[in-house]
Design a protein that fits this description.
Blueprint (H helix, E strand, L loop, with lengths): L3 E5 L4 E7 L5 E3 L9 E2 L2 E3 L5 E3 L1 H6 L7 E2 L13 H9 L3 E4 L5 E5 L2 E3 L1 H20 L5 E6 L5 H13 L3 E7 H9 L9 E8 L4 E9 L2 E10 L4 H20 L7 H18 L4 E11 L5 E9 H7 L1 H5 L2 H11 L8 E5 L6 H11 L12 H13 L7 E3 L5 E6 L3 E6 L7 E9 L7 E10 L5 E12 L11 E8 L5 E7 L5 E6 L7 H24 L13 E2 L9
Parallel strand pairs: 1-11, 11-12, 13-18, 15-19
Antiparallel strand pairs: 1-2, 2-3, 2-4, 5-6, 5-7, 8-9, 9-10, 13-14, 14-15, 16-17, 20-21, 20-23, 22-25, 22-28, 23-24, 25-26, 26-27
Helix pairs in contact: 3-4, 5-12, 6-7
Length: about 550
């Protein structure tokens, strides 16, 4: 069997690591010594594909066919608020797939984010194969803890397209805790927090570590908050200033936007260490009279904090909610681990210290620590290391739609996996002969309001005994395994009649579509190799639906 590598598939950069002969995780470098690969993919007019640093450099001259931030689109719908603002400033086109997913349009053809991510995965896989001198087919791939089932499955699909057997999808904060060696500090139970603010997502995970067992107590976060949002705020401010001064809208000039976007990111990185920096861009664009705009602007860290005040404020609520879900006080957290490049920002570190009442630990490279943890876990699964075990939880509430809009939670968020839960419901109309039970993933707040994020599937139970409204009782049993596969059984209590369904996560692509993409890639590769040799070198179903109500808490009639 080939080695299992650990891959951190990041929004901005990706990284790969593996256990060495001594069982120590090591990140693998490219021939030029770079230990991370920019998660950028570029297509030429002839559809030749470039990945990584070369793709990023092409963004200036080929912005409409150079994609970055695909992780923010994977498994997402095109009408999501954060996807809409991303589309407004992205130089490439974001379009709707037939099922409403967010795809990109490249050279006139729609491309799924899974396929974009697969190119990045294929690139880091090659880094591993070149460094190890052997083929690699198996990997642990990390995702934000707050990713829902569709985003996790979409990541699996990306791995399949890249020719990888994704052995496990691992939460990034858990991987980071492994890499930090949190289980080796001392014996006895410790409570730690992992604060993970990367390029496109924010996660907070609270976990206990006891004799090598990592038990996730609660997770929280924001899958639409990351370092790219800070870049965007700087970019938007400069675009507005240029328009006010020159009456030129840079958003309509892709090359100018690409140069400015890179300058904003570099300025942010500089301000992580310095209090002031300067952006200088000669010949950024032409003004209304055709004269060149030579842009120069001094930026300070305080200004960036002012521009991003609301982003900084969004970091606190998920932390407070996770503490509440775990039944913990901030003072009970013994250590806070920092993960993700944006945690280098001093104000972010200050916020972490204020929330948890202690200085966070900064003993690992935040860009590499997740990949190192994934490699560590790969060793555990392969039997090369046995000093840790992971117990994970569900990131979102799972329940059913009750009535027209209410949400009855069956499996609460932060339930330890695997989990089985039961709930009792009743019919809502007289002589109701069947029920259609919709399973949803969402988030229910303390006041009972709910945000239904995604429909997972449904089960239909028919041939119910006749009776008055509320007299027929249906027991719903929901089981979720460690791979987030749901098994749902609905049973009518009087007759024992039941219906069941297994709901496997869908990432937006059907299995057939994944196979077709893989086959197309093989044909394209074969065509390129042949050329070099010659040159010398779904069914839609609509049903009537009846709702259920909870017998102990009936819903008011409309």
């Amino acid at each position: 069997m080939s080695r299992i590598i650990g891959i951190d598939l990041g929004t901005t950069n990706s990284c790969v690591a593996v256990l060495d002969e001594k069982g120590v995780p090591q990140t693998l470098a490219q021939p030029d010594g770079e230990r991370t690969t920019p998660s950028w993919v570029s297509w030429s007019p002839q559809n030749q594909i470039t990945v990584g640093s070369r793709a990023r450099r092409q963004a200036v001259t080929n912005p409409s066919a150079t994609v970055y931030g695909a992780k923010r689109l994977i498994g997402r719908k095109v009408n999501a608020d954060d996807v809409s603002w991303f589309a407004r400033l992205a130089p490439f086109r974001i379009v709707a797939a037939p099922n409403g997913d967010a795809w990109v349009r490249i050279n006139g053809q729609p491309v799924s984010p899974q396929e974009v991510a697969a190119h990045v995965l294929r690139a880091v896989r090659k880094v591993a194969e070149d460094a190890l001198g052997e083929p690699v087919t198996r990997a642990i791939v990390t995702v934000p803890a707050y990713f829902d089932d569709a985003q996790r499955q979409a990541t699996r699909d990306a791995g399949s397209i890249a020719g990888l057997d994704v052995v496990r999808i691992l939460n990034e904060p858990t991987a980071a805790a492994l890499a930090y060696g949190a289980h080796r500090v001392r014996e006895g139970r410790r409570i730690i927090a992992v604060f993970d603010l990367g390029g496109g997502t924010f996660d907070i995970s609270l976990m206990s570590v006891d004799n090598g067992i990592f038990e996730v107590l609660a997770t929280g976060g924001d899958s639409a908050l990351g370092g790219e949002d800070w870049d965007r705020r700087i970019l938007e401010r400069i675009v507005d200033e240029v328009f006010d001064q020159y009456r030129v809208d840079l958003t309509g000039i892709p090359m100018a936007m690409s140069r400015l976007r890179e300058a904003c990111e570099n300025a942010k990185k500089a301000l992580s260490a310095a209090s002031e920096t300067t952006i200088q861009l000669a010949f950024l664009a032409n003004d209304q009279h055709g004269a060149p705009i030579n842009y120069e602007r001094t930026l300070t860290r305080d200004q960036i904090d002012a521009y991003t005040k609301d982003l900084l404020e969004r970091l606190e609520a998920p932390c407070k909610r996770a503490l509440s879900d775990a039944g913990l006080e901030a003072a009970q957290i013994e250590e806070v681990l920092l993960v993700g490049g944006m945690t280098r920002w001093p104000t972010v570190q200050a916020i972490v210290e204020r929330i948890f009442g202690r200085k966070p630990s900064k003993g690992a490279n935040p860009d590499e620590v997740v990949a190192l943890g994934a490699a560590q876990y790969a060793g555990i699964l392969a039997g090369e290391a046995d000093d840790a075990a992971l117990l994970d939880v569900t990131p979102h509430d799972i329940g059913i739609k009750v009535g027209d809009s209410a949400f009855a939670v069956v499996v609460p968020r932060n339930s330890m996996l695997p989990v089985r839960a039961r709930r009792l419901f009743a019919t809502t109309s007289e002589n109701q002969t069947f029920v259609t039970i919709e399973l949803w993933q969402g988030d229910a707040s303390e006041d009972g309001a709910a945000q239904l994020k995604r429909k997972l599937g449904q089960v239909i139970l028919d041939d119910l005994p006749t009776g008055s409204a509320g007299s027929v009782r249906v027991e719903l049993v929901v089981t979720v395994d460690v791979e987030s596969i749901l098994s749902v059984t609905a049973r009518e209590l009087r007759t024992g009649r039941e219906a069941s369904v297994t709901i496997r996560p869908s990432g937006g692509l059907s299995q057939r579509e994944v196979v077709e993409i893989i086959a197309r890639r093989r044909r394209e590769t074969h065509s390129v190799l042949s050329h070099l040799s010659e040159a010398g070198g779904a069914v839609r179903v609509t049903t009537r639906e009846h709702a259920l109500s909870e017998p102990d808490d009936p819903l008011p009639k409309k």
